[in-house]
Amino acid sequence: MASNKHWQDILWGGHTGWSITNTINWLLTTGRTLTDPAVFLKELALKLMKDDANIARIRITLNTIDPEIRASVYTWWRGREEIDVFTPSHGIESTTSYQGSPIEEARNSCRIVRHRLIDNLPTNAHIILQELKNEGMTDYAVFPIQFTDKSISTFIVASDDPKGFSNSDLNKWKALLLYLLPVLEVFSARKTIQSLLNTYVGPSTGQKILKGIVKRGDAELIECALWYSDLRNFTVLTESLSTETMLQLLNAYFEVVTNAVTERGGEVLRFIGDAMLIVFTADELGSIKQACQAALQAAIDANTQLQTLNKELEAKGMPQLSFGIGLNEGKVIYGNVGSLSRLDFTVMGPAVNRTARLEDLTKKLSVDLLLTEEFAQYITQPTQFLGSFNVRGVPTPLQVHTLAQCTKT
Length: 409
Fold this sequence. Notes:
This protein is α+β, with helices and mostly antiparallel strands. It contains 13 helices and 14 strands. The strands form 2 sheets. Strands 7, 8, 9, 10, 11, 12, 13 and 14 form an 8-stranded mixed β-sheet that branches. A 6-stranded antiparallel β-sheet has the order 3-2-1-6-5-4, sandwiched between helices. The longest helix is centred in the middle third of the chain and has 34 residues, at 167-200.
């Protein structure tokens, strides 16, 4: 049977030196309730400093599933007020800053990697070790953190004490990680869930889902500007281009529109083949007038960015792109529809149908941007009335406008 001293060494890092007891108590009470990793790291560092921990720098890396970033990296330095937050993009593993680094070694071996920086470094030492030595660090240790899904993140500590870390220090860091690991795994899981929701349903919708609006029928009535856009000649392009080229063009179009829309406070709700359903809510933007103005400006921005893209495509000998946009406003039902086990979070109502039908008219009228009369009343730019048009599924004719600057002469 293991002795009490053995278990004390494992759970508390032994008796000598500074104590992790107060930090553990904080982790099990207040610390675990914090939701921002940067705030958590700062508070953790302050607790450790108060208990005389031999520490000058702490870094936590948390892997995530995100289309743009590989991980979130949080760094605390003693004497600095702010936590440094870094989000390396995919492909970081192939860079010289990562290859051959202590972090790569710790992740690949799943073992603690320690480097004493007191003496001169070997000529082939990784650049990160030289940078830390230049910052005055004397000791550096990378602890791999393996979560229940077998993914590996890291907890990294550095000291500027003339003697570096003692054996007692390292034992305490290993003991502390027993209590840190479940808290860090929650942070990692929360970050991944949030990232996936942002990617697949959008930030606003994602927040609603995280708050528990997940049952079929959970919905609310919102006032918003509605955008429906569709790529021109998509069927022809699909039949004439390779799959790889078609996907490249489609993604370029989606990126142009998404960037323009999110920059103005809108949110892409759905990709429907080559079409996009987008909302600019009055609540988010302050009023329905501001929502309509934001949607219109996003449409102008997207068209401008598309012209730039088309010049690049032309230079590569690729087909150029064009798309039609219908803009409308109204009150819509925003919430969950579907089966009991498979739901879609979207907007519904006559205003949505009218917006889609309005976009259909852009082909018939050879005008890339059309506005309903209801939408046009909220914008400041000059418009031109194009007429009344009967459209499928709408009982009364649509009163259709466009921007004066879009009218062909």
